[in-house]
Specification:
- The protein is of the alpha+beta class.
- It is built from 14 helices and 14 strands.
- Strands 5, 8, 9 and 10 form a four-stranded mixed β-sheet that branches. Strands 1-2 form a two-stranded antiparallel sheet.
- A hairpin with a 5-residue loop joins strand 13 and strand 14.
- Helix 6 packs antiparallel against helix 7 and helix 12 crosses helix 14.
- The C terminus is likely disordered.
Protein backbone atom coordinates (compact mmCIF):
# COMPACT_ATOMS: atom_id res chain seq x y z
CA UNK A 1 0.00 0.00 0.00
CA UNK A 2 1.41 3.39 -0.95
CA UNK A 3 1.88 6.10 1.64
CA UNK A 4 0.58 9.66 1.52
CA UNK A 5 3.72 11.70 0.95
CA UNK A 6 2.02 14.92 2.03
CA UNK A 7 1.30 13.78 5.61
CA UNK A 8 3.63 14.59 8.45
CA UNK A 9 3.71 10.92 9.51
CA UNK A 10 5.44 9.91 6.30
CA UNK A 11 9.27 9.97 6.38
CA UNK A 12 11.01 12.37 3.98
CA UNK A 13 11.75 10.93 0.56
CA UNK A 14 15.50 11.08 1.06
CA UNK A 15 15.18 8.44 3.78
CA UNK A 16 13.55 5.89 1.48
CA UNK A 17 15.70 3.08 0.09
CA UNK A 18 15.93 2.39 -3.63
CA UNK A 19 13.44 -0.48 -3.29
CA UNK A 20 11.01 1.72 -1.33
CA UNK A 21 11.21 4.51 -3.92
CA UNK A 22 10.53 2.03 -6.71
CA UNK A 23 7.56 0.60 -4.78
CA UNK A 24 6.10 4.09 -4.34
CA UNK A 25 6.48 4.86 -8.06
CA UNK A 26 4.86 1.54 -9.02
CA UNK A 27 1.97 2.08 -6.60
CA UNK A 28 1.21 5.50 -8.02
CA UNK A 29 1.44 4.29 -11.61
CA UNK A 30 -1.08 1.56 -10.85
CA UNK A 31 -3.30 4.10 -9.07
CA UNK A 32 -3.11 6.45 -12.09
CA UNK A 33 -4.08 3.64 -14.45
CA UNK A 34 -6.99 2.60 -12.23
CA UNK A 35 -8.20 6.20 -11.96
CA UNK A 36 -8.05 6.64 -15.73
CA UNK A 37 -10.14 3.47 -16.16
CA UNK A 38 -12.64 4.58 -13.50
CA UNK A 39 -12.89 8.00 -15.16
CA UNK A 40 -13.71 6.17 -18.38
CA UNK A 41 -16.60 4.37 -16.67
CA UNK A 42 -18.02 7.70 -15.55
CA UNK A 43 -17.68 9.21 -19.03
CA UNK A 44 -19.51 6.27 -20.62
CA UNK A 45 -22.33 6.58 -18.04
CA UNK A 46 -22.70 10.31 -18.84
CA UNK A 47 -22.60 9.47 -22.54
CA UNK A 48 -25.25 6.75 -22.14
CA UNK A 49 -27.68 9.01 -20.27
CA UNK A 50 -27.29 11.82 -22.76
CA UNK A 51 -25.14 14.84 -21.99
CA UNK A 52 -27.70 17.17 -23.54
CA UNK A 53 -30.37 16.14 -21.03
CA UNK A 54 -27.92 16.16 -18.10
CA UNK A 55 -25.93 19.32 -18.76
CA UNK A 56 -27.23 20.96 -21.91
CA UNK A 57 -24.10 20.34 -24.02
CA UNK A 58 -24.27 19.24 -27.64
CA UNK A 59 -21.69 16.45 -27.18
CA UNK A 60 -20.02 14.55 -24.38
CA UNK A 61 -16.59 15.56 -25.73
CA UNK A 62 -17.49 19.27 -25.52
CA UNK A 63 -18.74 18.87 -21.93
CA UNK A 64 -15.66 16.89 -20.85
CA UNK A 65 -13.33 19.43 -22.52
CA UNK A 66 -14.84 22.16 -20.32
CA UNK A 67 -14.74 19.93 -17.22
CA UNK A 68 -11.07 19.02 -17.75
CA UNK A 69 -9.94 22.39 -19.13
CA UNK A 70 -8.51 20.59 -22.15
CA UNK A 71 -8.85 20.77 -25.91
CA UNK A 72 -11.74 19.12 -27.71
CA UNK A 73 -9.27 16.72 -29.39
CA UNK A 74 -7.85 15.59 -26.02
CA UNK A 75 -11.33 15.12 -24.60
CA UNK A 76 -12.33 13.03 -27.62
CA UNK A 77 -9.29 10.74 -27.13
CA UNK A 78 -10.35 10.06 -23.53
CA UNK A 79 -13.95 9.46 -24.59
CA UNK A 80 -13.06 7.13 -27.49
CA UNK A 81 -10.87 5.04 -25.19
CA UNK A 82 -13.62 4.90 -22.55
CA UNK A 83 -16.22 3.78 -25.12
CA UNK A 84 -13.93 0.98 -26.30
CA UNK A 85 -13.16 -0.36 -22.82
CA UNK A 86 -16.61 -0.18 -21.25
CA UNK A 87 -20.10 -1.45 -22.13
CA UNK A 88 -22.65 1.21 -23.01
CA UNK A 89 -26.40 1.42 -23.47
CA UNK A 90 -28.43 1.83 -26.61
CA UNK A 91 -31.41 4.18 -27.01
CA UNK A 92 -33.85 1.55 -25.74
CA UNK A 93 -31.74 0.95 -22.61
CA UNK A 94 -30.23 -2.40 -23.56
CA UNK A 95 -26.56 -2.85 -22.77
CA UNK A 96 -24.08 -2.83 -25.67
CA UNK A 97 -20.91 -4.90 -25.05
CA UNK A 98 -17.50 -3.32 -24.80
CA UNK A 99 -15.21 -3.64 -27.80
CA UNK A 100 -12.31 -4.69 -25.56
CA UNK A 101 -13.64 -6.18 -22.30
CA UNK A 102 -10.39 -7.97 -21.33
CA UNK A 103 -8.43 -4.75 -21.87
CA UNK A 104 -10.91 -2.79 -19.77
CA UNK A 105 -10.66 -5.29 -16.92
CA UNK A 106 -6.85 -5.11 -16.92
CA UNK A 107 -6.99 -1.31 -16.91
CA UNK A 108 -9.41 -1.26 -13.95
CA UNK A 109 -7.02 -3.56 -12.05
CA UNK A 110 -4.17 -1.08 -12.61
CA UNK A 111 -2.19 -3.60 -14.65
CA UNK A 112 -1.96 -1.59 -17.90
CA UNK A 113 -2.25 2.09 -18.73
CA UNK A 114 -3.57 4.21 -21.62
CA UNK A 115 -0.33 3.77 -23.57
CA UNK A 116 -1.22 0.07 -23.87
CA UNK A 117 -5.02 0.23 -24.09
CA UNK A 118 -4.86 2.66 -27.01
CA UNK A 119 -2.79 0.19 -28.99
CA UNK A 120 -5.06 -2.76 -28.29
CA UNK A 121 -8.11 -0.73 -29.33
CA UNK A 122 -6.40 0.33 -32.55
CA UNK A 123 -5.54 -3.31 -33.26
CA UNK A 124 -9.16 -4.41 -32.78
CA UNK A 125 -10.31 -1.82 -35.32
CA UNK A 126 -7.96 -3.30 -37.92
CA UNK A 127 -9.21 -6.89 -37.58
CA UNK A 128 -10.91 -8.01 -40.83
CA UNK A 129 -14.70 -8.36 -40.71
CA UNK A 130 -14.57 -12.07 -41.60
CA UNK A 131 -12.64 -12.99 -38.40
CA UNK A 132 -14.78 -14.84 -35.87
CA UNK A 133 -15.63 -13.36 -32.47
CA UNK A 134 -13.76 -16.22 -30.82
CA UNK A 135 -10.54 -15.43 -32.70
CA UNK A 136 -11.00 -11.73 -32.01
CA UNK A 137 -11.34 -12.31 -28.25
CA UNK A 138 -8.40 -14.71 -28.23
CA UNK A 139 -6.17 -12.16 -29.97
CA UNK A 140 -7.18 -9.43 -27.54
CA UNK A 141 -6.31 -11.62 -24.54
CA UNK A 142 -2.89 -12.40 -26.05
CA UNK A 143 -2.07 -8.69 -26.39
CA UNK A 144 -3.37 -7.85 -22.91
CA UNK A 145 -1.23 -10.59 -21.38
CA UNK A 146 1.80 -9.29 -23.29
CA UNK A 147 1.04 -5.67 -22.29
CA UNK A 148 1.31 -6.57 -18.59
CA UNK A 149 5.10 -6.75 -18.93
CA UNK A 150 6.00 -5.45 -22.40
CA UNK A 151 6.47 -2.01 -23.97
CA UNK A 152 3.88 -0.44 -26.30
CA UNK A 153 6.29 -0.99 -29.20
CA UNK A 154 6.35 -4.73 -28.47
CA UNK A 155 2.55 -4.77 -28.33
CA UNK A 156 2.44 -3.06 -31.75
CA UNK A 157 4.85 -5.63 -33.18
CA UNK A 158 2.81 -8.55 -31.83
CA UNK A 159 -0.41 -6.95 -33.11
CA UNK A 160 1.07 -6.67 -36.61
CA UNK A 161 2.08 -10.34 -36.53
CA UNK A 162 -1.39 -11.44 -35.42
CA UNK A 163 -3.04 -9.30 -38.12
CA UNK A 164 -0.76 -10.80 -40.74
CA UNK A 165 -1.91 -14.30 -39.75
CA UNK A 166 -5.56 -13.27 -39.72
CA UNK A 167 -5.38 -11.66 -43.17
CA UNK A 168 -2.66 -13.56 -45.01
CA UNK A 169 -3.64 -12.11 -48.39
CA UNK A 170 -2.95 -8.61 -47.09
CA UNK A 171 -3.81 -5.47 -48.94
CA UNK A 172 -4.30 -5.56 -52.67
CA UNK A 173 -0.89 -4.89 -54.26
CA UNK A 174 -0.36 -1.71 -56.20
CA UNK A 175 0.52 -1.75 -59.89
CA UNK A 176 4.23 -2.35 -60.39
CA UNK A 177 6.43 0.57 -61.24
CA UNK A 178 6.88 0.53 -65.03
CA UNK A 179 10.41 1.90 -64.72
CA UNK A 180 13.09 -0.24 -63.09
CA UNK A 181 14.98 1.62 -60.38
CA UNK A 182 18.76 1.62 -60.55
CA UNK A 183 21.39 2.91 -58.13
CA UNK A 184 22.56 6.45 -58.85
CA UNK A 185 25.44 8.51 -57.51
CA UNK A 186 26.20 12.05 -58.64
CA UNK A 187 29.55 13.58 -57.69
CA UNK A 188 30.21 17.17 -58.72
CA UNK A 189 33.20 19.32 -57.77
CA UNK A 190 32.44 22.95 -57.02
CA UNK A 191 34.66 25.93 -57.82
CA UNK A 192 35.86 26.14 -54.21
CA UNK A 193 37.16 22.55 -54.40
CA UNK A 194 34.39 20.95 -52.36
CA UNK A 195 32.29 18.13 -53.77
CA UNK A 196 28.51 17.80 -53.89
CA UNK A 197 27.27 14.19 -53.64
CA UNK A 198 23.72 12.91 -53.93
CA UNK A 199 21.92 9.87 -55.30
CA UNK A 200 20.17 6.69 -54.25
CA UNK A 201 21.42 3.17 -53.48
CA UNK A 202 19.81 -0.23 -53.67
CA UNK A 203 18.93 -1.84 -50.31
CA UNK A 204 21.98 -4.13 -50.22
CA UNK A 205 24.50 -1.38 -51.01
CA UNK A 206 22.78 1.04 -48.67
CA UNK A 207 22.89 -1.49 -45.83
CA UNK A 208 26.59 -2.13 -46.44
CA UNK A 209 27.29 1.60 -46.40
CA UNK A 210 25.34 2.08 -43.17
CA UNK A 211 27.19 -0.83 -41.58
CA UNK A 212 30.49 0.94 -42.30
CA UNK A 213 29.44 4.51 -41.44
CA UNK A 214 27.37 3.91 -38.30
CA UNK A 215 30.27 2.93 -35.99
CA UNK A 216 32.40 5.77 -37.40
CA UNK A 217 29.72 8.45 -36.94
CA UNK A 218 28.92 7.96 -33.26
CA UNK A 219 29.27 11.17 -31.19
CA UNK A 220 32.72 11.75 -29.77
CA UNK A 221 32.93 11.28 -25.98
CA UNK A 222 33.63 14.39 -23.93
CA UNK A 223 37.35 15.00 -23.45
CA UNK A 224 39.20 16.77 -20.67
CA UNK A 225 37.28 19.98 -21.41
CA UNK A 226 34.01 17.99 -20.91
CA UNK A 227 32.43 19.61 -23.98
CA UNK A 228 29.94 17.35 -25.77
CA UNK A 229 30.11 16.54 -29.47
CA UNK A 230 28.13 19.39 -31.08
CA UNK A 231 28.30 18.09 -34.65
CA UNK A 232 24.99 17.44 -36.38
CA UNK A 233 24.12 13.96 -37.62
CA UNK A 234 24.89 14.94 -41.22
CA UNK A 235 28.26 16.39 -40.20
CA UNK A 236 29.18 13.23 -38.31
CA UNK A 237 28.19 11.10 -41.30
CA UNK A 238 30.21 13.34 -43.63
CA UNK A 239 33.36 12.93 -41.57
CA UNK A 240 32.69 9.20 -41.20
CA UNK A 241 32.43 8.88 -44.98
CA UNK A 242 35.80 10.60 -45.40
CA UNK A 243 37.36 8.34 -42.79
CA UNK A 244 35.98 5.24 -44.51
CA UNK A 245 37.36 6.35 -47.88
CA UNK A 246 40.80 7.00 -46.34
CA UNK A 247 40.83 3.58 -44.68
CA UNK A 248 39.72 1.89 -47.87
CA UNK A 249 42.48 3.62 -49.83
CA UNK A 250 45.25 2.72 -47.39
CA UNK A 251 44.44 -0.68 -45.91
CA UNK A 252 42.73 -3.79 -47.24
CA UNK A 253 40.32 -4.01 -44.29
CA UNK A 254 37.25 -1.85 -43.68
CA UNK A 255 35.44 -1.17 -40.35
CA UNK A 256 32.71 -3.55 -39.31
CA UNK A 257 34.69 -6.79 -39.78
CA UNK A 258 36.75 -7.35 -36.64
CA UNK A 259 35.71 -6.32 -33.17
CA UNK A 260 37.81 -3.99 -31.02
CA UNK A 261 41.31 -4.98 -29.99
CA UNK A 262 41.94 -4.49 -26.28
CA UNK A 263 45.33 -4.39 -24.60
CA UNK A 264 44.51 -5.25 -20.99
CA UNK A 265 47.07 -4.14 -18.43
CA UNK A 266 45.38 -5.27 -15.24
CA UNK A 267 46.05 -7.98 -12.72
CA UNK A 268 43.97 -11.11 -13.08
CA UNK A 269 42.72 -10.82 -9.49
CA UNK A 270 41.60 -7.24 -10.10
CA UNK A 271 39.79 -8.29 -13.24
CA UNK A 272 37.89 -11.01 -11.36
CA UNK A 273 37.10 -8.94 -8.28
CA UNK A 274 36.12 -5.80 -10.24
CA UNK A 275 38.57 -3.76 -8.13
CA UNK A 276 41.42 -1.58 -9.35
CA UNK A 277 41.82 -0.10 -12.81
CA UNK A 278 42.96 -1.17 -16.26
CA UNK A 279 44.58 0.67 -19.12
CA UNK A 280 43.02 0.52 -22.58
CA UNK A 281 45.57 0.48 -25.39
CA UNK A 282 48.07 2.13 -23.01
CA UNK A 283 46.08 5.41 -23.14
CA UNK A 284 42.69 5.43 -21.43
CA UNK A 285 42.20 4.38 -17.83
CA UNK A 286 39.20 2.15 -17.22
CA UNK A 287 37.70 0.56 -14.15
CA UNK A 288 38.03 -3.20 -13.93
CA UNK A 289 34.24 -3.44 -14.32
CA UNK A 290 34.40 -1.54 -17.62
CA UNK A 291 37.24 -3.79 -18.69
CA UNK A 292 35.10 -6.87 -18.00
CA UNK A 293 32.34 -5.40 -20.15
CA UNK A 294 34.70 -4.72 -23.07
CA UNK A 295 36.26 -8.15 -22.65
CA UNK A 296 32.95 -9.75 -23.61
CA UNK A 297 33.44 -9.14 -27.33
CA UNK A 298 36.92 -8.13 -28.45
CA UNK A 299 40.43 -9.32 -29.04
CA UNK A 300 42.27 -9.74 -25.74
CA UNK A 301 46.02 -9.08 -25.62
CA UNK A 302 47.23 -9.85 -22.08
CA UNK A 303 50.10 -7.58 -20.98
CA UNK A 304 52.13 -8.76 -17.98
CA UNK A 305 53.79 -5.88 -16.13
CA UNK A 306 56.66 -5.94 -13.66
CA UNK A 307 56.65 -4.34 -10.20
CA UNK A 308 57.75 -1.00 -11.69
CA UNK A 309 55.25 -1.13 -14.51
CA UNK A 310 57.73 -2.33 -17.15
CA UNK A 311 56.30 -4.73 -19.75
CA UNK A 312 57.64 -8.24 -19.18
CA UNK A 313 55.56 -10.13 -21.71
CA UNK A 314 52.96 -9.31 -24.36
CA UNK A 315 50.76 -12.23 -25.24
CA UNK A 316 49.10 -13.00 -28.54
CA UNK A 317 45.60 -11.81 -29.30
CA UNK A 318 42.90 -14.34 -28.52
CA UNK A 319 39.65 -13.96 -30.39
CA UNK A 320 36.67 -14.59 -28.15
CA UNK A 321 33.75 -14.43 -30.58
CA UNK A 322 34.53 -15.72 -34.05
CA UNK A 323 32.76 -14.29 -37.12
CA UNK A 324 30.84 -17.55 -37.53
CA UNK A 325 29.72 -17.53 -33.89
CA UNK A 326 28.67 -13.89 -34.17
CA UNK A 327 26.55 -14.72 -37.24
CA UNK A 328 24.87 -17.51 -35.26
CA UNK A 329 24.15 -14.99 -32.48
CA UNK A 330 22.60 -12.57 -34.98
CA UNK A 331 20.38 -15.33 -36.41
CA UNK A 332 19.22 -16.38 -32.93
CA UNK A 333 18.81 -12.98 -31.22
CA UNK A 334 18.03 -10.71 -34.19
CA UNK A 335 19.51 -7.70 -32.39
CA UNK A 336 19.76 -6.59 -28.77
CA UNK A 337 18.05 -9.34 -26.80
CA UNK A 338 17.07 -7.11 -23.86
CA UNK A 339 13.26 -6.89 -23.46
CA UNK A 340 11.81 -4.12 -25.59
CA UNK A 341 15.07 -3.03 -27.25
CA UNK A 342 14.99 -2.57 -31.04
CA UNK A 343 18.71 -1.99 -31.67
CA UNK A 344 20.10 -3.80 -34.72
CA UNK A 345 22.88 -6.42 -34.55
CA UNK A 346 25.54 -4.05 -35.86
CA UNK A 347 25.07 -1.90 -32.72
CA UNK A 348 25.48 -4.87 -30.36
CA UNK A 349 28.25 -6.67 -28.48
CA UNK A 350 28.36 -10.33 -27.54
CA UNK A 351 27.95 -10.61 -23.76
CA UNK A 352 29.04 -13.67 -21.80
CA UNK A 353 26.25 -14.99 -19.54
CA UNK A 354 28.90 -16.57 -17.32
CA UNK A 355 31.68 -14.01 -17.62
CA UNK A 356 34.89 -14.79 -19.42
CA UNK A 357 36.95 -13.69 -16.41
CA UNK A 358 35.12 -16.30 -14.33
CA UNK A 359 35.73 -19.11 -16.76
CA UNK A 360 32.65 -18.69 -18.96
CA UNK A 361 32.97 -20.53 -22.27
CA UNK A 362 32.67 -18.80 -25.62
CA UNK A 363 29.81 -20.90 -26.97
CA UNK A 364 26.39 -19.98 -28.29
CA UNK A 365 24.55 -21.01 -25.10
CA UNK A 366 26.77 -18.70 -23.03
CA UNK A 367 26.45 -15.62 -25.26
CA UNK A 368 23.79 -12.99 -25.86
CA UNK A 369 23.70 -9.90 -28.09
CA UNK A 370 23.31 -6.60 -26.21
CA UNK A 371 23.48 -2.95 -27.25
CA UNK A 372 25.96 -0.80 -25.33
CA UNK A 373 23.32 0.64 -22.97
CA UNK A 374 21.89 -2.73 -21.96
CA UNK A 375 25.34 -4.33 -21.91
CA UNK A 376 26.37 -1.81 -19.28
CA UNK A 377 23.09 -2.35 -17.42
CA UNK A 378 23.76 -6.10 -17.16
CA UNK A 379 27.21 -5.40 -15.72
CA UNK A 380 26.13 -2.74 -13.22
CA UNK A 381 22.66 -3.70 -11.98
CA UNK A 382 20.76 -6.68 -10.50
CA UNK A 383 19.28 -7.63 -13.90
CA UNK A 384 20.31 -11.18 -14.84
CA UNK A 385 20.16 -13.19 -18.04
CA UNK A 386 20.18 -16.89 -18.83
CA UNK A 387 19.58 -19.01 -21.89
CA UNK A 388 16.27 -20.87 -21.55
CA UNK A 389 15.72 -24.49 -22.54
CA UNK A 390 14.46 -23.42 -25.97
CA UNK A 391 17.72 -21.53 -26.56
CA UNK A 392 16.28 -18.00 -26.28
CA UNK A 393 17.88 -15.40 -23.94
CA UNK A 394 15.61 -14.74 -20.96
CA UNK A 395 16.05 -11.83 -18.56
CA UNK A 396 15.03 -11.60 -14.90
CA UNK A 397 14.39 -8.06 -13.59
CA UNK A 398 15.35 -6.91 -10.08
CA UNK A 399 12.63 -6.99 -7.45
CA UNK A 400 12.22 -3.20 -7.51
CA UNK A 401 11.10 -3.48 -11.16
CA UNK A 402 8.95 -6.57 -10.63
CA UNK A 403 8.48 -7.98 -7.10
CA UNK A 404 7.72 -11.40 -8.61
CA UNK A 405 10.85 -11.23 -10.81
CA UNK A 406 8.94 -12.76 -13.73
CA UNK A 407 11.22 -13.76 -16.64
CA UNK A 408 11.05 -11.53 -19.73
CA UNK A 409 12.07 -11.78 -23.37
CA UNK A 410 12.43 -9.38 -26.26
CA UNK A 411 9.16 -9.87 -28.13
CA UNK A 412 10.34 -7.61 -30.97
CA UNK A 413 12.77 -10.24 -32.25
CA UNK A 414 10.72 -13.38 -31.58
CA UNK A 415 7.21 -14.25 -32.82
CA UNK A 416 4.27 -13.45 -30.60
CA UNK A 417 2.05 -16.31 -29.42
CA UNK A 418 -0.36 -17.46 -32.08
CA UNK A 419 -3.95 -16.39 -31.87
CA UNK A 420 -6.49 -19.19 -31.82
CA UNK A 421 -7.44 -20.13 -35.35
CA UNK A 422 -10.72 -21.43 -36.63
CA UNK A 423 -11.08 -25.22 -36.66
Amino acid sequence: MSRNLSTQESPPLWRLSGRELADEVRARLEALWRLDAELGQLLVEVDSRGVSELYGYGSTAAWFAHMGRMSRAEAKKHLDRARGLNPGRSIDGTETPAAAPATGAAALAGEIGPHHTNRVLLFLKKIPANVSEEDRNSAEKILVELARQATPHEVDKAADEILARMDQDGKEPKDPDPTERKPELRVRQRKDGWFDIDGQLDPITGTRLSTILDPLSTPRPAGEDKWPDLRSTSQRYGEAFGEAIAMLANVPDVPGGDRAQLVVTVGLNDLKSELGTACLDMVSELTATETRMLACDCQIIPAVLGSKGEPLDLGRAKRLVTPALRKALIIRDGGCAFPGCHRKPRHCDAHHVIEWAHGGRTVLRNLVLLCSAHHRLLHSSPWTVHIAEDGIPTFVPPDYVDPLRSPRRNNLHHPAPKARSQP
